[in-house]
Design brief:
Layout (H helix, E strand, L loop, with lengths): L1 E5 L7 H9 L5 E2 L8 H10 L7 H18 L5 E6 L8 H8 L4 E7 L2 H11 L5 E7 L2 H10 L6 E6 L9 H14 L5 E7 L4 H8 L5 H17 L8 E8 L4 E8 L3 E5 L4 E5 L4 E8 L3 H10 L2 E9 L4 E8 L1
Parallel strand pairs: 1-5, 2-12, 3-4, 3-6, 4-5, 6-7
Antiparallel strand pairs: 7-14, 8-9, 9-12, 10-11, 13-14
Helix pairs in contact: 2-9, 3-4
The protein binds N,N,N-trimethyl-histidine.
Length: 322
């Protein structure tokens, strides 16, 4: 009920990300976090409603159906920290289940101010819930939560929606290890992972017929035009989604349809593209259940339970810090 935003803590520097990514000598890149300005966050919300993109709805079904079971595994009292809250819709169910036991403090940690505001509006009506958001990167926010927790309190970290899929597999392990180092034994991590499924289904999910995902992808260039005064011609780049069988991930790229030079004044950059050259903007790794259990083990957790959606293969795994 009581909501507040704690001081915005060092979010990433767009200029630095753009310089590092576009000056790469081999494959040019822009990291996925650059998608989420206000327009990008709104487009991602729209993606979650597309018939082809079943991921978010599957996650929400699991959260709604099993939140009581999830809570029954957790020692009270807990403070909840969510890494990337998005709209907050799928988080409602576990917060309600927890707050039926006792008052709960919920810390959404988000780099997108607009997502943080949407999430607060979405969850504002839950009784005996205090929302205190962080506009920051995940580990910065989590460090702050951990440093201020009362001694007797456990932390429940929510990392839903298969956001971990943006990391390649070794970086995913390293990230979970960093999360683990901030936690204490007995603290919990609820980890959402999109599971392997037919490639045709995945391609449709990341290259939808309405072109919303294409707009989401191209928006990163529009954002650089808006914020860094760049001169990307959006009609000279094309959205590309392909499945990498070896890495078991969807890769999204922006393909330059002709040879061109682009300037990004605020980043003091001039970049040349060959015809057919791409900027790699996102990876979405797909997992299987034993692999998630192994991932848990490699990062200092044990896997307490896994819940699945039947309609769209997706898993929520409850990991307990060892
Ligand atoms: C928010 C990272 C889970 O990878 O499926 C959706 C983002 N990109 N459509 C995903 C996304 C294109 C999404 N994650």
């Amino acid at each position: 009920m009581i909501t507040e935003t704690l001081a915005s803590r060092a979010t990433y520097s767009l200029v630095q990300e753009v310089r590092a990514g576009l000056l790469k000598t081999g494959q040019k890149e822009l990291p996925a976090k650059c998608f989420y300005d206000d327009v990008g966050s709104a487009l991602f919300e729209a993606i979650c409603h597309l018939p082809e993109y079943g991921l978010t709805r599957a996650d929400e079904r699991i959260m709604r159906r099993y939140s009581e079971a999830m809570v029954s595994h957790l020692a009270a009292p807990v403070v909840v920290a969510e890494l990337g809250c998005g709209s907050g819709r799928k988080t409602r169910w576990i917060l309600e289940a927890l707050s039926r036991r006792q008052p709960v403090v919920y810390h959404p940690i988000e780099i997108s101010a607009s997502a943080l505001a949407t999430c607060r509006r979405e969850l504002d009506d839950i009784d005996s819930l205090r929302i205190a958001g962080f506009e920051s990167e995940y580990l910065d926010g989590l460090l702050h939560v951990a440093a201020h927790r009362p001694v007797h309190q456990h932390i429940l970290v929510l990392f839903l929606g298969s956001t971990i899929g943006n990391f390649d597999r070794p970086a995913g392990i390293r990230f979970l290890q960093q999360v683990r180092r901030i936690l204490r034994p007995g603290d919990a991590l609820l980890l959402g992972t999109d599971l392997e499924k037919p490639v045709s289904q995945l391609i449709a999910a990341y290259d939808d017929s309405l072109g919303v995902t294409a707009a989401f992808n191209l928006n990163v260039l529009a954002r650089l035009n808006r914020e860094l005064d760049a001169d990307f011609r959006l009609d000279q780049f094309r959205h590309l989604a392909r499945y990498n069988y070896h890495e078991r991930r969807i890769e999204m790229h922006l393909l330059s349809t002709l040879e061109q030079t682009v300037t990004v004044p605020a980043a003091e950059l001039m970049v040349t593209f060959r015809a057919g050259e791409t900027i790699w903007t996102e990876s979405s790794h797909k997992y299987n259940l034993p692999e998630v259990r192994q991932l848990a083990q490699q990062s200092g957790f044990r896997c307490e339970n896994q819940w699945l959606d039947e309609e769209w293969p997706f898993a929520e795994s409850l990991l307990i810090a060892q």
